[in-house]
Fold this sequence. Notes:
Number of helices: 1
Helix content: 10-25%
Order of helices and strands: EEEEEEEH
Strand order of the largest sheet: 6-5-4-1-2-3-7
Largest sheet: 7 strands, antiparallel
Distance between the termini: 39 Å
Amino acid sequence: MRTKKAVFIEGHIMANRMLGEASQPFCIHSVMFNNGKCAIVRAASGVCFNPGETIERSDCEWFFKDQKIHLLPFQYIKENESQRELAEY
């Protein structure tokens, strides 16, 4: 049986975009991770991260300013795809 090894990943918020209806807005974020990968992410709580802020993953849990957060599932993509998808979302 394989065991998961503890991995620390840091993600830097590059841009955000507010979407949804006025009664239920949500933010999507373009994130560049310290492993060189990018993604479009959304927090389940609807919180908006600002460009320049950082999210972190430690032992399969995500954190923002030392508070545990839940991110909706996402895929890693290339940086130029991240910029395009954020604009098209």
